[in-house]
Design goal:
Blueprint: E1 7-10, E2 14-18, E3 22-27, E4 40-43, H1 48-57, H2 62-69, H3 77-90, E5 94-98, E6 102-106, E7 125-127, E8 132-136, E9 139-143, E10 149-153, H4 156-163, H5 182-194, E11 198-200, H6 213-221, H7 263-269, H8 273-279, E12 293-298, E13 313-315, H9 329-339, H10 346-356, H11 359-379, E14 394-399, H12 406-410, H13 412-424, E15 429-432, E16 436-438, H14 445-456, E17 460-464, E18 473-475, E19 483-488, H15 504-507, E20 508-512, E21 516-520, E22 523-529, H16 532-552, H17 559-568, H18 591-599, E23 602-608, E24 611-617, E25 642-648, E26 660-669, E27 677-683, E28 712-715
Helix pairs in contact: 2-3, 11-16, 13-14, 17-18
Length: 722
Amino acid sequence: MNTSSFKVSLSSDIQVSPSHHGYRFTPSGHSNEGLATSSLVIPAIPGLEDAINYLQQGTATAQELNGVLKTQEQDQTGVQLAATLQKLDERGWLNHAVPPLAIAVPLVEGAQLNLDTPHWNQAQVSLSRFAYQHSYEGGMVLESPLSKFRVKLLDWRASGILAQLAQPQSLRLVTPPPQIGPETAYQFLNLLWSTGFLSIDEAEAPALKLWDFHNLLFHSRCRQGRHDYPTAHIEGSLDVWDDFPVVKPPMSGQIVALPQLSLDSIRQRDRTLTTEIEKRQSIREYDDKHPITIVILDGNPDHTLSCFTGAEISKVFPYWHQPADPVPNEAYLQFQAIDNNEDIDKDQKAEAQKAAFSDSLLKRIHGDNHACHITSTIVGQENTPSPGLAPNCRVINVPLNTTGTDEEFISPINLARAFELGLELGANIIHCAACRPTQTGEGEELLLQALKKCQDNNILIVAPAGNNKGECWCMPASLPSVLSVGALKPDGTPYKFSNWGGNNALEGIMAPGGEILGAQPANEEPVRLKGTSMAAPVMTGLCGLLMSLQLQQGKPIDAEAIRAALLNTAIPCTAEDTDEPERCLRGKVNLPGAMGLLFGESVTISFAGEQVTRTEHHRITSSDSIADINSITPQEHSSHNAVSLAVPEENHNSNQVAPFLEQTTINVSASKADQASTVGTVVSQKSSPIINPQGITPSTAYSGHVYILGTIGYDFGDESRR
């Protein structure tokens, strides 16, 4: 036990009785739930009975007890007494007091004083913003969710000192109350510091910055081992709820008429939709060199591998975790050696890995392997052992597993922090590899708000559906507006373990998830893995390419349009694929169909003053190579007056590319005299004969309008183009 200048006393809940071997210390039946409940027998030593009397009276410090009991004949008495006090203190049975102001009572077992006091004459100290004072058992107490002690205020002058600590100040500016000397006031401040109720003028710990007082108090009350408030007999108070009605009775029979809005006055003062559209400007800017940013929320990948050489890749560690030492390469290699041992089965491998590593280190290794594989699937460079789908995208890894605990990795508040961090980093896509199990599919409000904030800022969120066989769902994959990704076998059929049902059926899509090649830490040899975690980065890479193609065609990035196009063109499973078609979610990814829906042929007419510019964009057909996606650019045909528009047909055959239902051909001709005259010909069915428009005489009637069949994009020629 570290010696202090506080008076030490034995808790009133501890009963002391002599035994054959010494003295037995036994907690009473109404002692705190957080303290040790088993008895403790202390061997009899010379002077122990006197020490117990002093402890029960609380009139001596630990040093004073040693001074009273140590004798010349028995030099070991002080050492034995210190060991006895250490045992009592570890069990939370000793109180620490500064008479006549206050006494600190441990709330839980293992509560320890912080005796490393600051330099009082130089430090600026104040009461912690998490400390609060309230009445308790007929007296005033000071508590804090950061402290494992409850300080009982024995005198009103203690509150007077606390009032002076509302603002940071040095010790010399604290005025002792009447009849309280400076030494006693100094000891009281030491007690507050030792029990965790004071903060100095240094910057607050990063882990506390996002916590409000009430949130942290609720968090601490929900955790055992942080307080002594009773929780075992809550069911005894359930009868009280019978006195309350199931339905709240009406407050009053009076009906208050709400004000009626005048539509005429609204029309007079509101601007038109056209005016708002023309004045609308985008607030986000994109880097022309590396416009697509993908933030990956997972483990800590090995960026020294050759597949990441030359990639635009970096790491941003969470501010709510303390930085952790990196996992040594030897640990990765030992883990891989066990995993590659073909002489033992899967369960034996798991047992061998548990025996070789601590629990937290093993979880970090699993997470880092996972992150390394999916990161290489997305951004692995060409001509390397682990090439990726989108090697030119910018990737930022946010390692969430540095603590090595599942609770910290998938907690709603940490996931919400991670999504908001991705927003701050300028993400276009956030790939979240975490799976928070849920039976209801309902997310916590904190997490839902963070997801909505990302979606409102044009960020696409991709997450694996999970490998739980549909027995439970994974968040955030099962939450609204998240692109959930299930896993397909190499033969195109869904894996049995891939989650399905719930919101996955509405906003989920299937992608290849078997035998996916990827990197592993500290090893240049790639591995092939399967699972929804392998399918999700495939979809993330494809979404990155689609966003890049939007920019190359002069369009702004539209995350929701890409998500909708992928879901609306997905190919449903057939009876040949599975007996349970709902396992395929919305269907298999149909990249040609999605590209046709996103980049189908269209006409853009730009109005800038009296100048009218007409640009034709040709659709990307299924014959275009996926490898040439990055080289596709919009083509301008200023010398042609015809444009072909194609609408994809819904296709239920997974072995064929979606055919086109109809082809619409529009011919627009204009004379210099009247500047506008159109003749349109539409072919609705592929089997219908194509009408030759050359024999048709344009109408001479001029109404001032141009009629066009098809899809028209409007470009107002101002800042709204950005």
